[in-house]
Amino acid sequence: MRIVLVGPPGAGKGTQAAFLAKNLSIPHISTGDLFRSNINQKTELGKLAKSYMDAGNLVPDEVTIGMARDRMEQPDAANGFLLDGFPRNVSQAESLDQALKADGVELDAVLDLEVPEGEVVKRIAGRRICRKDSSHVFHESYSPPKKKGVCDVCGGELYQRDDDTEETVRKRLEVYHTQTEPIIDYYRAQGLVVTISALGKVDEVTKRAMEALQRKDDEDDRDDA
Q1: SS3 sequence, the chain?
Q2: Coiled-coil region(s) at which residues (predicted)?
């Protein structure tokens, strides 16, 4: 299957993308990984992207599209892929459609992870990171440390990242609603959107997503029959 994963910050897209890609035996393609890989390998697109980033400018859509297209044409993506973090706006979605059409393929589904705004704020603003080891992550409500402000693993100080404050989270949500959320309507008009609740345990959400994607696939098969 060829899938685009969308949802607000804090919806658990990265976590779900990894599980879904494994269950579906397709590569998980994230924007962050694309940029890191191209820059580290010093590809022409990577050099171009780095020149914009070093100048403090946004990387143009056509560069991002080029990276995504190159990755989607790799052998391991022959039977499908899961795009995470891309497209981010309707312009990118339109460009992606054009690129896929040129390659003779099309998307099978757009999985929309739905989370109430209050839950998003709670999830992100409650997160605390260890200063000694950033892989040690706690949450004030869901996985609190035994001693407030102290890492259970190494005793390091726990802190809240600047981009995890409630004010920052609400600004990120505003950007999501303005720029990214419109792609849901764009894809809904094509009959591609599958919306599920992203509330609950990780495995519960994964199961819900797999079942929804299977139903979508079955419906498409019936329509083609």
Answers
A1: CEEEEECCCCCCHHHHHHHHHHHHCCCEEEHHHHHHHHHHCCCHHHHHHHHHHHCCCCCCHHHHHHHHHHHHCCHHHCCCEEEECCCCCHHHHHHHHHHHHHCCCCCCEEEEEECCHHHHHHHHHCEEEECCCCCCEEECCCECCCECCECCCCCCEEECCHHHCHHHHHHHHHHHHHHHCHHHHHHHCCCCEEEEECCCCHHHHHHHHHHHHHHHHHHHHHHHC
A2: none
